[in-house]
Each structure stands twice: as C-alpha cells, then as structure tokens.
UniProtKB/TrEMBL annotation:
PROSITE patterns: HTH_LUXR_2 (PS50043). The keyword Nucleotide-binding applies. SMART domains: HTH_LUXR. The keyword Transferase does not apply. Keywords: ATP-binding, Nucleotide-binding. InterPro entries: AAA_16, P-loop_NTPase, Sig_transdc_resp-reg_C-effctor, TPR-like_helical_dom_sf, Tscrpt_reg_LuxR_C, WH-like_DNA-bd_sf. It comes from the Bacteria. Residues 917-982 form the HTH luxR-type domain. Gene3D superfamilies: P-loop containing nucleotide triphosphate hydrolases (3.40.50.300), Tetratricopeptide repeat domain (1.25.40.10), Winged helix-like DNA-binding domain superfamily/Winged helix DNA-binding domain (1.10.10.10). This is AAA family ATPase. It comes from Streptomyces vulcanius.
Amino acid sequence: MLASVETRSVSPVFVGRGDELDTLNDALSRAAAGEPQALLIGGEAGVGKTRLVEEFTEAAGRAGAVVALGGCVEIGADGLPFAPFSTALRALRRALPDELAAAAAGQEEELARLLPELGEAGHARHDEEGMARLFELTARLLERVAAERTVVLALEDLHWSDASTRHLLSYLLRTLRTGRLVVLATYRADDIHRRHPLRPLLAELDRLRTLRRLELARFTRDEAGRQIAGILAREPDPGQVDAIFERSDGNAFFVEELAVAAHEGCRTGLTDSLRDLLLVRVEALPESAQNVARIVAEGGSTVEYRLLAAVARSAEDDLIEALRAAVNANLLLATPDGDGYRFRHSLVREAVGDDLLPGERSRLNRRYAEALEADPTLVPADQRVMRLASYWYHAHDPAKALPAVLDASVAARSRRAYSEQLRLLERAMELWEAAPEEVRARLRPVDYTEVYPPCGCDPATTPLHYLDLMAEAAVAGRYAGERESAMKITKRALHLLEDDGDPQRSAWFWVQRSRLVRSLGRGGGREELARAQELVRGLPPSEVHAEVLTRSAHWSMLHDSGPDAFQAAEQAVAYARMVGARATELQARQVLGILMVDAGHLEAGLAELHEVKDRSLAEDIPSVAVDTHINLPSELEAIGRSREAVPILHEGVELARRYGLPDSEAWAWGNLAESLFSLGRWDEADGACVDVGRMGLGVGARGLHATLRAELAVARGDFAEASRQLATAQGHFDSHEYAPQHHLPLARHTIALAVAEGRHHDARGHLERTLDAGFPLGSHRYAWPLLLAAMTAELTDDLLARIREAARRLPTIAPVWQAHERWLRAELLRAERRPDPELWFEAVSAFERLERPYDLARTRYRLAEALLSTGADEPDRAAELLRLAHAVATRLGACPLAEAVTALGRRARIPLGPRDHNADSLGLTARESDVLRLVSAGRTNRQIADELFISPKTASVHVSNILGKLGVAGRGEAAAVAHRLGLFPPETENRALAR
C-alpha cells in the first residue's frame, strides 16, 4: 500500500478562519463544562471546510478530547445509510472501548444497526417508532460516553447524506441535554439547490437556539497571498497573487490548484472552464494513472485497494506505479486506515467522473459489481449489499439489479433506515418490468418483505408480486415519516386493485390509507376504514380482518365511543385469537378495556387493562406494553384514582426510554403531568410538561404538551402564557379530526381563559359551539370539568338550561364524577341567585374523600361564599373554609383563587392568618384527628398503628384521607397545616412525643 506523499500543493500555514476557530474552541470549552454544543459549518466547495475541521479536531485532541470523525459516503447517486455515524461510532469504540461497551449495555441488539461490531442486530418488530427508537438510544449512548470525557463528533459532507442520517442528526441536535459533547457537521452550500433534500433540514436547524451556524467566506486577496506563500515556500510576486486571486475568486482550493500550476510552469488562467482547470493535473499524469483515477472516480467516495485491483485488472506492479503517480501528484490520497484511496478533493473526482463516456461508466460499474460478487470481502460487510445494488443499477442490467436492489432494501430495513428502504423499493418498482420474467419468478415475498397483504397464497412459495413491493414501500414511507410518498403509493396500489378481485389485499391498503389520511391531517380516516370493513365482511377470519376491526374499534373509541366500538373490539379480539395474531389481539383487548371503563364497567375494564399490561411485558411486545402503561393510568385518572396512576406512568416513562420510544415517552410524561396536577403537585407537573415538549415528536404529543401548559398557566394566573399555549395547541389539533380527548380540554381552558380576561361573550361563544358538538359516550371525564369551567362565565338562561340538560346525560358512576355533579348542581343554583350551602357542603364532602386539593379548595371557597351570602350563622365555619382554601391556593401558586378568597375574606372582615381551630371544623373524624396529631409529631405509619392499636394499612388509609381533606400533598404539609392552624396544643404534642 502507498502512503500519502507531502507536497507543496497544501499550504503548511493555516490561513484566515481565526474567528471561526475561536467559535469552535469556545464550543469545546462549553462542552467540557457539561453543556452539549452543536455547530453547522457551510461553505461552497473548496472554500476550506475540511481544513478548518482538521485544525480544530487536532487542537481538541491535544487538549484531551476524544475525536470521532465520520463522513457521508456517496456511491454513485446514493448515500450509505447512517455512514457518518457508523464511522464515528467505530472511532469512539477504538478510543473508548470500555466506556462505549458500558454505555451500550442492554441495547446492543438495537445499536448494532449502527455499529455492527456490538453484535447481531435484533429482529424487533418494525413500526412507526422503530426509527425514533434507534435515534433515542443513539442519543443516550452518546450522552453516556461523553459523561466523563469531552467528545467531538464531526460529520462531514452532509450534502451527500442519506435521509436516515439527516433524521438522526436532527433528532440528536434537538434532544441532547447532557454530556461533554460537541457535534459539528459540514456541508457544501453551493450544492444546496431549491429541491436538495438537505434544505428542509437546514431550515429546521435554523430554528434551534442551541445551534451555531458558521458560513465560510472566500479568502481576501491578503489571505490568498499568504496561502500562495505557504505553498511556494517563498513570498510570491504581487502580480502573480493578483492573477491567481482574480482567477480563483478567493476559493481556497482553486488558489492551491492555480498556485501549483504556476509553480509547474502552466499558465495561471489555463482556461475559463472550471472542469478543465480541475482536470489539468489529471491530464498531466501517465495514461495508466489517468485510468486508475477514472476507476476510483466511479467507485464512490472511497475505494478499497483490493477492490480497485480487481476492477483495474492489471498487474500489481503496474497498478502500484500508477497509484504512486496519482498520489505524488496529490490527486489521490490513501485513506486514514491505509486500506484504500480517495480523491484529495471531491471536486476533482466529480470532474473526472463527468469526463467519462456513458458506455464507459456502465462498463466500470459492471466490473465493480462482478468483482464484488466474486469476492464479497472486498468491501466492509455493512456496505456490501448497498454498494452491489448501486453498481448493478448503474451498470443498467435489470436482471442483476432487481434482486440486488431488493437485497439492499432488506438491509436498509434491518438498520431502520426506512427512507433508504423506500428509495430502494421505488428503484425496484422502476426495474420490475425491465427485469426478465424468469428473474421475477425466482423472487419470494418472504425474502424481501415483512408486509404480506393476504392473497390466499403462501409467501414462501409464491413469486413476489408487484403489489407486495408497493405494500412494503407504503409501510416504509410511513415508518420514515414520508407520508406523502406513502400516500401516492397507496393510491396507486388501490387503483391497480380496482379490477384485481383481491378484497383482503384491497382492505389492507384501505387501512393504510386511513392511517395516512389521519396523520396528514386530511380527515378522520373513517371513510377509508368503512371501505376496508365492507371488503372483509363475510370473509374467513384473517390477520387483515382482525386489524381492520381493531383499527375501527380504536377510531370509535377516540371519536364516537359506543356499542359499535365495543362490538368491533370484541370481534377483533376473537378474530386475532383465531389466526394467532397475538400483538393485534392484545391491542384489541386494550381498546376493549378502555371501552369497558368508559361504559361504566370500571373494575372489569381496569382488570382487563392490567392483564394486557402484564401479558405484553411477559411476551415481550414492547409497543403494547408501553401503550398500556399510558392508557391504564389515563383511565385511572379519569375515575379519580390519580395516586394509583402515578407509579404506573413512571414505569411507562422508563419502559419507553428502554425501548427508545420518544413519542410514547412524551405521552407518558403528559399523562403524568395531568395526574400530578390533580394531586396538587403542580411544580412536578410543570417539570413533566417540559419533558413532554422536549420528547414529543408527533402532533398529538405536542398538542398535549401545550394544552397542559395552558391549564397550569390559567390556574396560576399567567394569562399571556396561557394564550400562547392555547394557540399552539389549536394549531396542532386543527389539522386533526374532532377527538374529545384533545378538543374538550382545549375548549375548557379556552373558556376559562376568556372568563379570566373578562371576555364573557367569547366564553359563551366557545361554550355554545362545544354544546352544539355534544359529548359523545366516553367523553364524560372531559365534559364535567368543561361544564364547571363554563359556570364561571356570565351565562344566559338558555345556556344554563343547556348545561343542565347536558349534565343530565352524563354518568356519575365514579366518585369523582359524583363530586363534579354535586359541584355543578350547586353552581347552577348559585347562577340563579339561590345559593344552597347544603349542596355546597355535599360537594366539599365529596372532594374531601378524593385527592384533588385544587378542586377541594375551590368548593370550600364556594361553600364559604354561600354561608356568608345566605346569612347562615356559621361565621367560624366560613372563616375556616376560607383559610384552608387560601392556604392551598398559596401553596399551589393558584393566584386567581388566592385573590378571590382574599377578596371575599376582606368583604366579610375575616382575617386569613392563623387562629384556633379544631379537627371537627376540617371535616376530620375523631380517629383521623388522633392520626393527624401523631403525624404532626413525626410518627411513621407503623408507630401510629402501634400507638392507636390499629394495623399499618389502616393507618395508611387514615393518612391518605387526611391529606385529601386538608388539600395537601404529603405528611410534612399536613403537619405544617396542623401547626399553623394550632390544632394541637404544644403539651398534647409533647405528650405524644413522650410516648
């Protein structure tokens, strides 16, 4: 092998770029302090991006940082999936083998898709979160590796990047939170035309506040002069500098080329053609070296020596001599691993490639493909199938190209490079008709697809069908987030199926179309599901039939829950069991469990959801397991059992992280924030909301995040923030069909904000539109709070009547709904100026049995108001209620409630400071009073049980009841309330402690 020979064509002096280098060094310092850094370096070809990165990484290495370099690899017109990340991870593995192994522990099967050296890639189920799962695990891997050591991850030539690399880079830059990590990437700015695939990524990254952009400008005349001096090793003639600078226009690479040409006696402005300028050095080489250069140019960004030898078909000594001439002329360079060759600059490779004749290009690609087929070890194993597919495709041989391209699509899918899989499948569809019939007849669906739309045949023995390719491509597009492409393929497939007479295959494509319509925000997908149901009706049970029923039941659950949804879910479970589709069966059972809870079969529905959760974990079906850890707590929250929901949601967050499901993690955080809000743990809820916003990728998760932030902002009185968050949520949900779980909370907070800002007319308008839409079965968990929020507005008699009628239809099976019903009845009488303290007392009592301190404080405030307005002879009781409500509002930061309580106390001349109280006035039983006294004395549940001769479990129940009645979140806060209100004289507490 030959080593690169140092020549004067590269200046030993690093010219200019001082400001840019300072920016990079500043990023290195920030990263070393634990703040991840992201930089993007753009500039035209030849302007000096690579030299800047080399100078920076060499300095970073000297400072103790670990440098991991990776470049996007171009093969013909195709980029290798994840190539720069795979190369960089290999470099990290060489530098920090133990650290990387520890960071990857437990996730080797998934991470092996990027770094095969970690082991065999797993055969996990492919789904829409599969790519995000890999991305999340990669981001966390880098954070862990960079926890103790500063790491520089440099990715070059993004203009050649594949879609999967772009998606992963975007995810990485958006989600990095910790670690001593610098991520920088370079791209050729002059190549980014209007339709270049990198352009959308650049626009997206521009919106990141954490990213710094560097755009390298051309050299000034002075900088060009210093560069020429470095190349010539002497001070150049001013006229020569003027001529070179004028001809190069300050482009660093052209300055080098022109300076070397001048040094070797060529005219500075040899030609006006840039291509001719770049080919000057090639044409000066012996013919054998020129031939080698042409072979290398067509082989890709880098060509291995053994592969080059096989394609060149010349004696080894002759090949070595030709390579030596090309290296000495600084045309080619040996690769850093010493295993192959690349052009010193990609512009020269492109010029040489463009100079090839069409037939010459096809012949070279055929020779590359034949050499690689004869000896697959000529290239790295993880590049083999992709490069073979590219070589055969550009050799214009459909018979060879079709199976090679299909093999490459399978490899792309195994790496979760779904965008590349889609491109390759589109290429396969392009080749389909041109390939000979005997070649197509040897292909089998089982070898090339994971999606088998049933056609009544065995995929292991039946030839691959064109529609099989379309099905696989449609799913790949959906997984990759390229839904427009997936929709086009699906529409074309359905058009082909119009006269095909294959109802199950047609039904499968209609299900795909339904999912795509929803995700693109072009409707609810109901019509498409109806077409699918019609097609499978009367057919024998099948996986497609089970999926159609499950999807239909799920749609009805979200939009129009009722008997039809229940029946569809039951039938889906039965069909899935009959055909052995276990994942579909568990998904259908999950839908069934939710529908059971919504229909009032609370314990049976929850039991079904618990069973699905446990079975999906035991059978290792991650998607269902994580879903159930989100949906089961949601149903618990719906019926007021927030405390039970919290630990399951924490488990859901950890599960989603373990499996790398960021969107699912976002939903878990969102549901956790909702339960924490109910429990009065608002600061924790706020933190969970932040995690939803960081993690959520989908429209639903982002809309949920904004809705939750709006609820907190309204309750705390930050109306400007509430308005911003509601606008954001509206923007996310407007593109989707009406769904009560999204639109009813959004309407509730919109009404509450309008009332808070005095816009009662707007509040009435929102309420009227909501009442016109109605409350579908299963939406009562959202309907009760919405009607209560509306009661704070100045309502007409007609709207009051409509609220009363709507409430009459809502169920009150769960205790929390019963509490809401009593509250609403009391509000309706208050609106009619007939306040009823007894009804308010019932509402307060109902909430004292629940753990909803904010709702309890609000109903206590209303009860105090009713007592004072009706002249009831209970001033002490009203004062007590106001003090308790004020204490909770102050602790939560619920400013509007605190101000309302303060204003009422001022009007009633009730001071809200500490005073003597008794436990009875707080609604505590005698036993609960004894327990609170011991809690205030710092006793544990076990000590309380021993003191009072009860079981620890009973003591725990009493403590939970006390927390709910006092409207506090923990034992410490309960003790603080007792001390502040003087419930127990010091001597009583001292006696308790003495015992």
